[in-house]
Amino acid sequence: MEEERTTRPVAAPNDLQRQVEHLEGLLALAEEIDHLIEGCLKSHKDLASTLCVVFDFLEERLGPTAMYLHTQNEDLRPTFYGRNITEDELTRGAPQILSVGERLQQTIGDRTWFVMPLDMAGDTIGSFGMAFPAASAPAADVVFRQMNLIAEELDNYFFGIQESRYKHMNIMEIQRCLKARSLSEAIDTAISILYDVVPMDEFVLLYLDEDLAGGKIVQYLVYRGCKKEFDSIDRPMPELDALIRRGGDVVRPGNRDLEQVFPASAMTETILLDGLVEETLVGKIMIKPPSDIGFSIASREMIQVFAEALRQRLVDFNREKNMLRQFFPADVIRRMMREPNYKAKYLSPRKADIGILFADVSGFTKLSEQVLRDPPRIARFIDGWSKGGTERFFPLGGTLDKLVGDCLIALFGPPFYDRTPAQVAFDTLRAAVAIRTFTREFLAAPENADIQASPFSREFGVAIGLNYCSADVGLIGPNQDLTAFSSGMNNTARLQGLAKAGEILVFPPIKDLVEQAEPGRWEFEGPFTASVKNVQEPISYFKLVGEPR
Question: For residue range 451-488, what is the model confidence (pLDDT) as tens digits?
Fold first, then answer.
């Protein structure tokens, strides 16, 4: 029995040649479009200009009478790009044509339209159409092959636009979030955005803060995923705190001490510096990617952008804190800066009843001219005394109005105005006693042996005047300094001028308020009266006797 054989039709030589020529034509078309798009990218053309170049080429090469592309522009907004056709003209004839879900061939008037959806990574991002004369339109399979090839060449371009736009939007959002008044809140929100675009298991920020004396303090935030696990202020990390307390310079670039807490091999480190010519260390960030993947180029770019925005926020934050440090202790600054509009809420000028303290070094002119003499020595004395005096009233709710030569001026009540009059008066008086005690200790310290050896040593001390009165208080003047204005403020300065070394003089409201709050604890002499310059009536005051019981 003869074996059965199956045979396949063999293409005629002319058909095979035509297929090869068609494929070669498609490859040439793809190469030319790719070259055109590459040239547009190099010359930084926008999408509209790039499509104009592509349409010119297609018009000459394929001969359509009209064409369009409907997709997202650089702002990710749906936009119609047409050649010899407008969006209105097209949709009047076929309303559904811009939102096709599959290939469509449709004759509208004297044109035959070939339309296909634009697809990117499985998502439809628009549609692409070309029209030819209805009487001589090419075969649909030929046109759609050409259009499919064109769409594939444009696909990478559209993907680049979308990625660039998303990147830009994320950068803008990170920068917007980092403008939030509260630093912790700003970083929390910015980290959540970064986490959406950069996969990471752990994020560590270490940054340099300053204490009252200008010394550097390392603060930190530790996130796992996008959740904050540790915060040097509110929720310390014991092992990191212990490392910092041991004095390691953990923020310095290349420091290996942090490997005791965070394995260096798993972390990417970015240093935050301020300044172009003279660089100042601001802090550093360390990020750990998921164990199964590293950071792509796109992720590294986003980290760098985030780091730069964060660096600027920390610089602004430190500048703002340095301004506030002139007037307030650290705990008050932290509380204020948790409020987004803290300046308007706490520091805007207002009329309020406040405690006022003027403390002046008695005999300072004689002290500086006949004992200290040398300007650097005088400066060291003023720096040491004013720093110690400030450290005595800050814990009692006092704020520094100003230091005028050898005179400290402090206000009690600002910035929160949340204490009763009796509490304010009590704290003002306690601060005066603390400053008097400190001044005695300071004058007796070894570094002031030259003062102790002076025949005038008994003349030196601190003279203090206190008041509780109404004043206009807030950030006032061209330098926006915290200060207060009122006749009561001026009278307190005059009262202080009446005090001798070691004396604390008070106006009646201070005496009355503290005696009501703590009967029998404080002893006063008076009342006394005195005529003072620029005040018509004599002022009445009391003198604190001894220490509180």
Answer: 999 888 888 999 999 999 999 999 988 778 889 999 99
Q: How far is CA 214 from CA 297, 336, 401, 479, in A?
A: 39, 20, 19, 21
511-534 tens-digit pLDDT: 999 999 888 889 999 999 999 888
Number of Cβ atoms within 10 Å of the Cβ of 179 = 12
253 cis-preceded (ω within 30 degrees of 0): no
pLDDT digits (tens, 9 = 90+) for 140-167: 999 999 999 999 888 888 888 778 878 8
Contact 283, 259 (CB under 8 A): no
Residues 6+ apart with CB under 8 A from 547: 433
Q: Cα-flanking dihedrals φ and ψ of residue 466, to 5°?
A: -125, 150
User: Quick one: which of 393, 394, 466, 388 has its CA closest to 431?
Assistant: 393
- The edge-to-edge listing of strands for the beta sheet with 216-224 is 227-231, 216-224, 202-210, 280-288, 268-274
3-state secondary structure at position 405: coil
Residue 448 dihedral angles phi and psi, to the nearest 5°: -110, 35
Can you tell me the distance from the alpha carbon of 420 to that of 400, in angstroms, rounded to the nearest whole number?
A: 20
| Paired tokens of 312 | 């600027």
- The owner of tokens 């005059």 is 494
Tokens at residue 521, please?
Answer: 């604890």
Tokens matching residue 124: 């439809």
Give pTM, 2 decimals.
0.63
To 5 degrees, how large is the angle CA 72–CA 74–CA 77? Answer: 40
Run of H or E including 245: helix 238-245
Strand partners, 246: none
